[in-house]
Structures are given as structure tokens and as C-alpha cells.
Specification:
The complex is a heterodimer of chains A (375) and B (143). Chain A is mainly alpha-helical. Chain A has one domain: Na+/H+ antiporter like fold (Up-down Bundle), CATH 1.20.1530.20. Chain A is built from 18 helices and no strands. The C terminus of chain A is likely disordered. Chain B has 143 residues and is α/β, with parallel strands linked by helices. Chain B has a single domain, classed as Rossmann fold, CATH 3.40.50. Chain B is built from five helices and five strands, in the order βαβαβαβααβ. Chain B has a five-stranded parallel beta sheet, sandwiched between helices. In chain B, strand 2, helix 2 and strand 3 form a beta-alpha-beta unit. Chain B is globular, with a radius of gyration of 15 Å. The mean pLDDT of chain B is 86. The chains are: A mainly alpha (375), B alpha/beta (143). Chains A and B meet through helix 1, helix 2, helix 3, helix 7 and helix 12 of A and helix 2 and helix 3 of B.
Amino acid sequence: MNMWLDASLWVGLALVAALFSVRLGISVALTEIMAGAIGGNYLGLHMLPWVEYVAGFGAILLTFLAGAEVNPSDLRYKFKETVLIGFISFLFPFLGAFAFAYYVTGWTLNAALIAGIALSTTSVAVVYAVMVETGLNETELGKIILAACFITDLGTVVALGIFFANYDWWLAVFLLVSLIVIALTPFTTRWFIQKFGNQVSQMEVKFVFLLLFGLGGLALKANSEAVLPAYLLGLAVAKIFMQNKQVMVKMRAMAFAMLTPFYFLKAGLFISFSAVIAGFGLILVLLAVKMAAKFLGVWPLTKAFGFTSRDGMYTTLLMSTGLTFGTISALFGLSHKIIDQNQYTILATVVVSSAIVPTLIAQAFFRPKTEMASQ
Amino acid sequence: MFKKILVAYDGSAHAQNALEVAIDLAQKYSSFIGVVSVINLPDFAGTVSEVDDIMMKANEFYREHHAQVANLLQQNQVPFQLHIEYGHSGNKIVKFAGENKFNLILTGARGHNKIQQIILGSTSSYIVQHAPCAVMVIKQLQL
């Protein structure tokens, strides 16, 4: 096939996935992953160099937007509880999944680290949607849970950024430049938007892309991961983007129209259905390990901070969800040849399952009384 | 008999029919009308933006439609209240009716074909099966 026919297949799958998403009320990310998996297993969908670039850009922009969606005041509100719950929510499943993959299944050290990182995540989006639906996003409990999710994902991107980096001069340069750029970004971005914003040439968007590509490039030089600076840059501009919603809207439109579909299709493309069947038992066990580790880490903390048992269980289950950062971590492992396609399939399937199973359990059995009373 | 009537309103022609029947009943029984619209959020969302975008567009959609609904109800001098809920339509409407003690739910039938019924289910079927009060499904308004 030629480039444009290849492109039409990819975009066609993205369109079908979006249609199913709208009709079924399921996240477009999930339907795109499924479409990618069907494309890879049955339609001859395969990776191409330009898809690699577009999908990579999608992952970077997705991570940047995730950082930019943090409400800084929510992070500061009940800071101690937020950081502690968020960090433990990262650490326990990371250690649990790592230990299981390394000691029980016999994966290599680095492959087990990827398993730990991929299963440590929390899906902020899943949590956010459930919070909006239940009205908890306006409550103290909801704000703590949401902010803690951001801390968990921060742990994930930091782990991904530092575990596999080369500890050489490039890493020092990357860290130093990142520190300076991220510290200056709130000021420079605000100035750029005020001075050059809302022009046809969309200079403020190009400016953000420049920062993302520049720091991403340095991250790659250090064998680190471009999503680390992207997430931190997002956090740095979160307040400015809240005040300049148009910039956010433009970047979202670009991301969701053209970039993230390629990323999620690619995430599905490498899922092998035969490996899902062969590894079904392991998938279930790893999902259980993730949920159990989240339970062991987060649930006692919710008790310590005075949550009711029901609220605590609900919080714990929601923090057991995962999707975007889990697939990013697993894809990082696959593209750096740390894990093979079978291992990727196992991890990606566990990640996708973790977006669904804990949410269903939480919604069915542990809806907080505060929410039920308000309905 | 029907002191509190709830109209499940999604902006469609079928929902508009249900609203017109509700007005007719309200004038006969001196009823209060509640209009509830549900914004369906994606299950297992992939990004916060995805959720925000859906909320933003749906709120915009219902702002316009609710203004028209309010106008119609005012013209007919029926006491009313408008609500927006987030979640799954059938489930939210049934809960809303129960919590707020409505006597009757009016909903339009959307006219899904067999395949759509199997894949998507039907909000009106769910309401009929789970409602804590009487339900009237308006298939087509013939005056």
C-alpha cells in the first residue's frame, strides 16, 4: 500500500472506534485500543515510521494535557493526605507487580520493573468521570482522591524516566535544562500567550510544542522518556491554561483529532489475541495483584485519615484503575525491547482490564452514602 | 392523581412529544412538572479532556433546549423545574424519580431497530422495568 492508503486505514479505524465510543458510551481510548488490536490481528495493520512519529507525539501531548489538567489548588488542598495516598498508591502496586513478575513469573529484572511501573498507575480520567457522575468531584473526599491520582501518575512517569536512563552527562544535561525550562515555563508561556496569542499562526501552541520536543529530545539522549518532562511541563502551565482555556481547547482538538488515535491504535496493535488466550491466567493474577496491592496501600491510609469504610473502599477501588500511563509504560518497554510482544500483551490487557473491573465493583457495591443521599 | 410528573428529556422529537403530553396531563391534574436531562459520560474514560468535552457540549446543548422547554411550560402556566444529571440515562432517571417522589414518568420511545436494541438496550425499557412509579412511554403523538 502507499502512504495515503495506509493513512486511510489508520484514520478509518480511528473513525470507527470513535463511532462505537459515541454509540456505546465507552471511552474512545478503549475503543481505539480494541480497534488497533483487531487491526493488528485480523486486518494486517502494521507499524510505519511516520505512524511511530505521530503516535509518539500523541503520547507526549496526552501526557502534557494530563499534567495541564491538574488544578493546582486541589493539589495544595489537604496536601499531606494527597501526597501520602498518591505516593503509596504508586509504591505498593509497583513493588507488588514487580515482585510478582520477577520472583513468581521469572521475568527479567527490567521487564519486571516495566510490569511494576505499568501496573502502578491510576486512571485520573476514570476516577474523574465517576466523580462527576456521583457529584463527589465537588466534595473534600473527591478533591483528595483526584489530586492523589495525579501524584500516583507523577510517580509512574518519574519511575519510567529514571529507571532506564543512562547515568551519564546527557542525564545531567537533561535534568539541568529541564529544571530551568520547567521553572521558567509559567512565566514564558504566560508572556507568549499575552504577546502572541490568538494569531492565525497559533504561535503559543508552537511554543509549547517546541518545549515538549526540546525536552523530549534531551530525555531520549539520556535514554529517559519524553513523557516525564511533558507531564512536568503540563503541571507547570496548568494554572495558565486554566486562565486561557482557548489554548487548551486548541491543543485538545489537535491531540484528539489526529495524534492520540494513532497512539491508542498503536497500543492495541501489539496486543496479540493468541497471547491473551495463552496468558489469560497470568492476566487475571496480575490484575488481582494490582488491586490487592492498591488495597494494602491505600485502604489503611483512608482509615487513618478518617474516611468511612465505604468511602475508603470506594477510594481504593477507584485508585486501582489505570489506562493511559499504563499503556505508555508498557509500550515504552516494548519499543525499548525490555519486554517482548507476549509480555506486552499481558501488561496491556491487565491495564485495560484495570480500567473496567475496579470501576464496576466500586459503582456496584461501594458507592459512598453521601452521593447516594444527594440523589 | 399525578401530582408530580417527571419528563425524561433528551432534546429529541420523541422527548418533545412526551413533554407535550406532560403539559396536557399537568393542566388536567394541576401537576408539577420536573424535566430531567441526563448527560451520559463515557464509561472507563481515557482522558479527563474526553469527559470535559462531553460535559461542555452537552451542557451547551441542554442550555438551549431547556430555555425552549422553560418557555413552553411558562406559556402553559405549569409549575416546573429543570434538572441536569450525569451518568447513565435510565439509571439516573429512575433514581431521580424515586428520590424526588414523582408519581409518573413520561419518556419518549426512540424507535431503535432490533440490532440497536440488542447492542444499546433502551432507556425507556429500563425505566419501565425499574421505575418506582407509573411510566408512560410516548411512541408517537397523534392528536
